[in-house]
């Protein structure tokens, strides 16, 4: 197409685009445009839009190339910019006059900016000026609270602690410390009275059956019910806080902690959640509306993850440790790899089959989950869709 334009008299190429972000996407765009410049011998002006739309965030970063791929200007990422671009015609045709070359931020900052801008634009376009979330004292809800504060301002982010008898004293203290550090409104709504009422109502039907995952999910769904009631009453959009690792293997309760209108960390694996928290504690930018400094208490980042739905519960009780789990998920989800690929990477075959089975069993949950900003090429929404039910997979977890 570009060669045809050159052959029919084009003197430079102007490429208006709506290219959404994913990690490393700018290099992909640049490589494509360098190839067009080299094959045509023409200057290329690549224009990209800015802003959020559902799960997509368009990051701008427009640029210009002279023939043979020489970068002559580079505009900022994520910020709307009006720039004057001059072209001069000489003996060899049109050339773009050199302009400022903006240096892009690190991958960590780009991802964080996408989560902030995605939430900010989603709220603006849906008419919400305020949000709320359940603040558990854990790392996922802590990061979502900080993203929301940076997107909308701390005064527009209601944090709600919904403790039960399984909520540790550390979690209570950590949630309180985070809310105070951010300057967000903070509520304390115990779920024990409501849980006792539900337990009493169901007792005749559950008689003779031992407690199991059902009772744990009741707690999660009661929290979802109470948070949705607050959302309805005060006109604040509920944010959900499940990371990509949990979303992948179904460690989230549908109609419980999955309840909500938007999930800022939906495409962020748990190991990256930890590192993003550390990055945010060490960095503050003008586009962040939340306070600078160490806003996430280090203990939230360092303590073993737990849903705290039963005594002494840890995520590692039923899942591989997150560095191992995320490495397997990256192969199975992001790279569309197989069990043999996971084993070749040094992981146990039986564990890999368990993880793959959980991924496919959880498809129905992901079909009903809130949208969230895309950070990778294989985010759970439009980028990776599988049938909810099928008969073509071996029940044992093989292909």
Question: How would you characterize this protein structure?
Answer:
By secondary structure, this protein is α/β, with parallel strands linked by helices. It folds into 2 domains: 2-104, Carbon-nitrogen hydrolase (Nitrilase/N-carbamoyl-D-aminoacid amidohydrolase), CATH 3.60.110.10; 108-367, HUPs (Rossmann fold), CATH 3.40.50.620. Helices cover 42% and strands 12% of the residues. The chain is built from 14 helices and 12 strands. It has helices at residues 2-7, 25-40, 107-126, 139-152, 169-182, 192-206, 213-234, 244-249, 270-282, 298-302, 322-334, 339-344, 349-361, 363-367, and strands at 13-17, 44-48, 50-53, 56-59, 63-66, 70-74, 87-90, 93-96, 131-134, 157-161, 186-188, 237-238. It has a 4-stranded mixed sheet with strand order 1-2-5-6, covered by helices on one side. Strand 3 (50-53) and strand 4 (56-59) form a beta hairpin. Helix 4 packs parallel to helix 5 (169-182). It is globular. The protein starts with a helix and ends in a 32-residue tail after the last helix. The relative contact order is 0.11. The model is unreliable at 395-399 (pLDDT under 50).
């Amino acid at each position: 197409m570009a060669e045809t334009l050159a052959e029919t008299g084009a003197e430079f190429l102007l490429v208006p685009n709506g290219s959404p972000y994913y990690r490393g996407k700018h290099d992909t765009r640049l490589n494509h445009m360098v190839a067009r410049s080299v094959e045509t011998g023409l200057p290329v002006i690549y224009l990209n839009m800015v802003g959020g739309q559902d799960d997509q965030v368009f990051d701008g970063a427009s640029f210009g190339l002279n023939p043979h791929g020489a970068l002559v200007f580079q505009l900022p990422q994520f910020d709307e910019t009006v720039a004057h671009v001059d072209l001069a015609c000489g003996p060899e045709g049109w050339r773009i006059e050199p302009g400022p070359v903006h240096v892009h931020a690190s991958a960590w900052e780009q991802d964080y900016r996408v989560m902030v801008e995605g939430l900010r634009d989603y709220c603006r376009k849906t008419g919400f000026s305020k949000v709320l979330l359940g603040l558990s004292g854990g790392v996922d809800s802590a990061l979502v609270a900080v993203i929301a504060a940076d997107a909308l301002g701390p005064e527009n982010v209601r944090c709600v602690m919904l403790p039960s008898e399984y909520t540790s004293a550390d979690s209570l203290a950590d949630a309180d410390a985070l809310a105070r550090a951010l300057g967000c409104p903070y509520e304390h709504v115990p779920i024990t009275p409501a849980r006792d009422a539900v337990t009493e109502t169901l007792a005749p039907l559950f008689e003779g059956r031992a407690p199991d995952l059902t009772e744990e999910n009741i707690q999660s769904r009661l929290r979802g019910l109470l948070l949705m009631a607050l959302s309805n009453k005060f006109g604040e959009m509920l944010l959900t806080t499940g990371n990509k690792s949990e979303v992948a293997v179904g460690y989230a309760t549908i109609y419980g902690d999955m309840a909500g209108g938007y999930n800022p960390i939906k495409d962020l694996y748990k190991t990256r959640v930890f590192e993003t928290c550390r990055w945010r504690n060490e960095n503050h930018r003008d586009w962040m509306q939340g306070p600078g400094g160490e806003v996430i208490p280090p203990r939230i980042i360092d303590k073993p993850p737990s849903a705290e739905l039963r005594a002494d519960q840890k995520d590692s009780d039923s899942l591989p440790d997150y560095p191992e789990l995320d490495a397997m998920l990256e192969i199975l989800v992001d790279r569309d790899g197989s069990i043999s690929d996971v084993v070749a990477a040094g992981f146990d075959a039986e564990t890999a089959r368990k993880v793959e089975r959980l991924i496919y069993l959880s498809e129905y949950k992901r079909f009903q989950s809130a949208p969230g900003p895309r950070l990778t090429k294989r985010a759970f929404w439009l980028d990776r869709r599988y049938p909810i039910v099928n008969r073509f997979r071996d029940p044992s977890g093989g292909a």
